[in-house]
Each structure stands twice: as structure tokens, then as C-alpha cells.
Design a protein that fits this description.
The complex is a heterodimer. By secondary structure, chain A is of the alpha/beta class. Chain A folds into 2 domains: 239 residues, P-loop containing nucleotide triphosphate hydrolases (Rossmann fold, 3-Layer(aba) Sandwich); 54 residues, no CATH class. Chain A has a 6-stranded mixed β-sheet with strand order 6-7-8-3-9-10, sandwiched between helices. The radius of gyration of chain B is 20 Å and the shape is globular. Helices cover 37% and strands 22% of the residues of chain B. Chain B contains 11 helices and 10 strands. In chain B, strands 6-7-8-3-9-10 form a 6-stranded mixed β-sheet, sandwiched between helices. A 4-stranded antiparallel β-sheet of chain B has the order 2-1-4-5, with helices on one face. By secondary structure, chain B is α/β, with parallel strands linked by helices. The chains are: A alpha/beta, B alpha/beta.
Chain lengths: 301, 289
């Protein structure tokens, strides 16, 4: 980021080890420096055990560093006096939606957090209405929260976080249990939140999902091994493979075609980009007409 | 009733949770499915479509309320069948099976089944060794605390515990969900080599269309307790209309073929895997399609 804007979350020299259950402490984070800015969409990827979830849990003070510091705004996460402000500012959505639903109806669940902040009933109603609207659950107010689908439960969890008027939402593998439709809706919601100025930090194993982010941070053994915009990270396929990771499928195909497909600008990370690249190459060599009439979508045998 | 090589035959199976109460929830509404020896059968469907309920019928965890389930020649509606024998021959691997490891030491968890079968110590040891090595875990890990293994290792350990019973059929619910790319690849490689024995069969439920495209011979699409589409994997996975209407997605390679065609390129068939997609583009670039 080249902006001079103040970071929303700042981790400096962050070390953390898990103690207990093993003879020696297990180091999980080893010297992380990272800044998250308002409106930024950051995907954190890495093999199992690389420290992704541990890092995320430092961003809303669920964990405190062994060494180094994490600040949310100017609040140091070590200082208990800031805990309430930090937790309202930085919401978290977990992998299993049932684990984070606290009330029996949708409306009560969303109201629970702000109610505990002592928000007045009228303002509370506004918050609930706006939060449900933001995740597309308007009209579900009276529904039993346990009877929602998994994807709806994830969106309910986001609404509950939004009602706290946060500046950032953390997603810990929140899409992994959803079916393709639920997953797409959740990803669209994340993108919408960013465009409204919230920071979104998502931990995922799915590189196609990571490709949608502004920035990909690759963790390996508790350290940042690579980071940058998705294209620049996914361009280094061999490095990712060495870290036990992979590139999105279209990028992988593009790498395998390297040499035969001189990528005009940058390596493709989506199916559309790869298809454009192939079509552009063929048009260049006159193998298909320059102005091929596009068929309308879906008109195939 | 069935061909000699039919291992599982499900006919008109219906299941309603809390049946007979005001809270009843219909889950399966007349499902028929056949699993032949040597085949890997993929079961896809959105969350709540009844996939897990169907799987639990395949080793007798649930008995048919309506319809029939035949497994390895036995009818699961027959109360006199040996259900322990069925459960040994049909290994069911639940979603997140690593959450169900219960022994402190890795080897003991794998040994639990063989010991329960009353096998001799040496036989148990041999089963544990074979099962662990089959899933790519070194036999030395048997003396490790399960809590010290990584998530991917623990998932493979749970699978080894099922394999140690030497099942003929493996039934898996979302086997790769939550695994990192390396863990996923090694599990898929294992399943595909395990299934290459023509006497065996795999039933795999997932909403990961890439896993389905890589492993399945036949695919069933389950929506709201009904099979809305079934057939050879290639036929089913190219049926974009049904898949998209069913809240599913297309495998990336199928989507790529469609996008190429949309751009006017001569792509006659949809590719099913990344290898096929790569070859398809190579052919286009050579211009000899």
C-alpha cells in the first residue's frame, strides 16, 4: 500500500507460541510485521499449521503476543482497558456457523451484541435493520436462527458482527463448509463490505477465493513467506508449491502452457482471463476471425 | 434383484427425521442409486439435500423407513442380518473424522477396530502398519500423541482406522473439506489408487466439484431429498443447467471450455480435468483441431 492512511490493524514483531500439551512450547508465529488498511481485502493463505488462524486471533485480541505488539487503531491489544473497543471494532466469523449463534431468532441474535453495549432501543432497531439488509437477510427477523441454512447462518454471524459497527471483519475459513452457492454469496458479501470501507481479512485454503482479494499474505512456519497482489503471488508457482500450496486452477493451466502462450500482460488468475488470453492469441494468428460474433450466454448443446 | 457386480443397491429410499411428530423433517424422498464393483460414485448436492442421511443408510447406521437398501447382498430391512459384518465391510468416514479420534496414541486409534474384531496381536500390528502406510503415514507415527499430529495427518489417521477393518466399500462425507492443498492432493491420490482394485467401490459425497471431476465414474445429483440427475460423470458434470439450478457449480475445467466456446473458439467437448483443459488449449494453439 502506498497510501499514507493510518493502518487499522498493525502487527509488529509478533511472536506467539502455544504452551501445554507438548513437552516444548510450539512456536506458531515468528516475527510477523503486517498492516491492514481500511477498505482492504486481505487473504491469508498457508499450509495447515502455518499460523493463519493464530494470526487472525491476534487481530481482535483473542490472543495476546508473547513478544511484539498488535494495535487496532491506537489501542494495544495487550491493554485490557481497550478490549471492549477492540472487539466491537474487529468482528470475527468462524468456520462453523452454529458455534457463534447466541439467540433463538435472527433479530435477537443480531441485537445481542449492541444491546450489551447499552445501545438505546431505537438506535438498536436501526442497527439490526441495517445489518440484516447488508447481508441480504431482511425479512428473516422472526425466523428461528437454528433453522437457517449453513450459508444463511454465516451471513447471520456477519450481521451480528456488523451491528457492532466494526471497522474490520475477520473470516476464519468461513466459506469452507458452504456449498458453492452459499460460498459465492458470502464472497460477494465480503467484497461489498470492502467497498463500503471496511477491512476484510480472510483465512482460506481456496486459492480461487484468495485471488479475489487485494492482497495475498502467504504464511509458512509462522513467518510471512510471500505477499503482494494475487497476480504477483500466483506468478511464483514453484515457490507456492514448495510451501505446500497451489495456484488457482486457471493460473496453473497458464503456467503449464507457458512458452506456448506468451501472456500479453500478466498471468491470468480467473477462468475469464485465461479464456481471453487464449482467444486473443488465436485472433492474433488469424486462426479465428477478429470480430467473432459472440453467442449469447448459455446457447450450447 | 441385482447384477453380480452390484455392491450397493438403493431403491425408492425415503427417510423423515422425527417422523410421526409435529417436527418431522423429510430428508430423502424416494432415492434410487446403484454402486457397482470397481466404480467410484460421486454424490453432489447443496447443504441440506440429504447427502449425509443417504450415506448413513449405506452401512446400516440408519435403516430404511421406506424403500430398500441392499449392501453386498444383504437387505438392510432384514432385522436378522449381521450389521457388524456390514459395518466392517462398508467403511464410513464422516465429515471431519479427525474430531472423532479418541485414543491418546495414534497407533491405538487405528488398532481399535482390528482389536474389536478379536484379531491376534501380530495381526493387529500388521493391519495398523498397512493401513497407516496406505494413507501415507509412517508406521513410526503410531507412538505419537494424536494431538501432536497436524490436521491433515489426523484426518488420514482416522481414515487408516477405517481401512484397518479392510472394508470392501469406502463411503466418505466431504473428505477434503478444510484440508490444505497438499493434504487434499495426497488424500485424492490415495482414494484414486485404493479404488483401482476392481473388487472395491467408493461412494463420495461432497460439494467440491473438482474432487468429483477427478475421482468419480458415476455422479448423482441430490436436491431436497430427490435425485434430479444421474449418469456417467462426464455427462452429469457438463449439465450446467441442472448443476447451477441445484446451487452447485461447474468444475473449473468445464467452465473454461464453455468460456472458450463463448469466445468463438472451436471447442466441441467440455474438458473434465485440468490435464484435459491444458491439452484442449494446446490443440487450439497448434491450430490442428
Amino acid at each position: 500500500m502506498t497510501t499514507a492512511r493510518a493502518p487499522l490493524i498493525r502487527a509488529e514483531g509478533l511472536y506467539y507460541s502455544y504452551v501445554g500439551g507438548t513437552p516444548e512450547p510450539v512456536p506458531a508465529l515468528r516475527g510477523i510485521d503486517l498492516r491492514i488498511h481500511p477498505g482492504e481485502y486481505v487473504a491469508v493463505v498457508g499450509a495447515n499449521g502455518s499460523g493463519k488462524s493464530t494470526l487472525l486471533r491476534h487481530f481482535n485480541a483473542l490472543l495476546q503476543p508473547d513478544a511484539g505488539n498488535v494495535w487496532v487503531h491506537e489501542w494495544n491489544t495487550r491493554e485490557a482497558v481497550h478490549l471492549r473497543s477492540i472487539r466491537s471494532s474487529v468482528g470475527m466469523v468462524f468456520q462453523v456457523p452454529d458455534a457463534q449463534i447466541v439467540a433463538s431468532t435472527v433479530e435477537e441474535d443480531v441485537a445481542f451484541g449492541p444491546e450489551n453495549l447499552g445501545i438505546e432501543p431505537e438506535a438498536l432497531q436501526v442497527r439490526v435493520r441495517e445489518a440484516l439488509d447488508a447481508v441480504g437477510l431482511t425479512g428473516y427477523e422472526e425466523r428461528a436462527s437454528h433453522a437457517l441454512s449453513a450459508g444463511q447462518k454465516q451471513r447471520l454471524a456477519i450481521a451480528a458482527a456488523l451491528a457492532m459497527h466494526p471497522r474490520c471483519i475477520l473470516f476464519d475459513e468461513a466459506t469452507s463448509v458452504l456449498d458453492p452457492q452459499g460460498r459465492l454469496q458470502l464472497l460477494n458479501t465480503m467484497q461489498a463490505l470492502c467497498s463500503q470501507g471496511l477491512a476484510v481479512v480472510t483465512v482460506t485454503h481456496d486459492m480461487t477465493e484468495a485471488a479475489r482479494a487485494h492482497r495475498v499474505v502467504v504464511l509458512h512456519n509462522g513467518e510471512i513467506a510471500m505477499q503482494g497482489d494475487p497476480r504477483s503471488v500466483f506468478a511464483q508457482e514453484n515457490h507456492l508449491l514448495a510451501l505446500g500450496l497451489e495456484t488457482p486452477a486457471p493460473t496453473h493451466i497458464a503456467h503449464r502452457l507457458a512458452g506456448r502462450l506468451p501472456f500479453s500482460s500478466q498471468i491470468p488468475v480467473t477462468v475469464e482471463e485465461l479464456a481471453d488470453e487464449v482467444a486473443g492469441q488465436l485472433k492474433l494468428h488469424g486462426q479465428i476471425p477478429q470480430s467473432n460474433p459472440m453467442q449469447p450466454g448459455g446457447a450450447y448443446p | 434383484m441385482s447384477q453380480p457386480d452390484t455392491l450397493i443397491s438403493v431403491q425408492d429410499l425415503a427417510h423423515t427425521y422425527l417422523r410421526g411428530t409435529p417436527f418431522e423433517v423429510p430428508s430423502l424422498r424416494g432415492v434410487s442409486l446403484t454402486v457397482a464393483a470397481g466404480r467410484t460414485v460421486g454424490l453432489v448436492g447443496p447443504t441440506g439435500s440429504g447427502k449425509s442421511t443417504l450415506l448413513q443408510h449405506l452401512n446400516g447406521l440408519l435403516r430404511p423407513q421406506e424403500g430398500t437398501v441392499h449392501v453386498l447382498g444383504d437387505s438392510l430391512t432384514d432385522p436378522s442380518i449381521n450389521i457388524r459384518d456390514i459395518r466392517q465391510r462398508v467403511g464410513l468416514v464422516f465429515q471431519n473424522p479427525e474430531d472423532q479420534l479418541f485414543e491418546p496414541y495414534a497407533g491405538d486409534d487405528v488398532a481399535f477396530g482390528p482389536r474389536a474384531l478379536g484379531l491376534e496381536r501380530d495381526q493387529v500390528r500388521e493391519r495398523v502398519r498397512q493401513a497407516m502406510e496406505a494413507v501415507g503415514l509412517s508406521f513410526d507415527l503410531k507412538d505419537r500423541l494424536t494431538s501432536q499430529l497436524s490436521q491433515g495427518e489426523r484426518r488420514r489417521l482416522a481414515l487408516a482406522g477405517v481401512l484397518a477393518l479392510e472394508p470392501q466399500i469406502l463411503v466418505l462425507d466431504e473428505p477434503t473439506a478444510g484440508l490444505d492443498p497438499l493434504g487434499r492432493r495426497s488424500l485424492l491420490d490415495f482414494l484414486s489408487s485404493w479404488a483401482s482394485d476392481a473388487k472395491r467401490a467408493i461412494v463420495l459425497a461432497t460439494h467440491n466439484m473438482e474432487d468429483i471431476a477427478l475421482l468419480s465414474d458415476d455422479v448423482y445429483v441430490l436436491v431436497a431429498g430427490k435425485i434430479v440427475l444421474s449418469g456417467p460423470a462426464r455427462t452429469v458434470l457438463q449439465n450446467a443447467d441442472v448443476l447451477l439450478q441445484s446451487s452447485l457449480s461447474l468444475p473449473v475445467s468445464v467452465e473454461l471450455s464453455r468460456q472458450l466456446r463463448r469466445r468463438g473458439l472451436p471447442v466441441s467437448t467440455d474438458s473434465l480435468t485440468m490435464d484435459e483443459a491444458t491439452r484442449q488449449i494446446e490443440v487450439l494453439l497448434r491450430g490442428d483441431s
